[in-house]
Amino acid sequence: MLTRIVRMTFQPEKVADFLAIFRDSENKIRNMPGCQHLELWQDADMPNVYCTHSHWNSADDLNNYRRSALFGQVWPTTKALFAAPPLAFSVYPAGPDSTSTPRPTS
């Protein structure tokens, strides 16, 4: 399983626009092949900062979503509302209780 976190800082006056976009698309994203989980988090100290937290069966499933028509609609309209560049990263479970195989390091 791959976990994807995307941290987004919005123009304060554009937060309501973002929330409308997210609410309109969240179930469509959840229904994308390979998406196991999607939720939205709001920063505890900065109310115009949000993170999406999603779980995908594989990196291929995430990349297929990122190449989809849905992403092509959602991301450009969301990106137009940013006050700063987003921070996105993908992670796999690690540690002794992890069911994933360790990834090679360079």
Automatic annotation (TrEMBL):
PROSITE patterns to which the protein is assigned, alphabetical: ABM
One MF annotation (Gene Ontology) recorded for this entry: monooxygenase activity
Domain ABM: 2-92
Keywords assigned: Monooxygenase, Oxidoreductase
Domain of life: Bacteria
Keyword Cell membrane in record: no
InterPro entries xref list: ABM_dom (IPR007138), Dimeric_a/b-barrel (IPR011008)
Protein name in UniProt: Antibiotic biosynthesis monooxygenase
Organism of derivation: Hymenobacter cellulosilyticus
Taxonomic path: Bacteria, Pseudomonadati, Bacteroidota, Cytophagia, Cytophagales
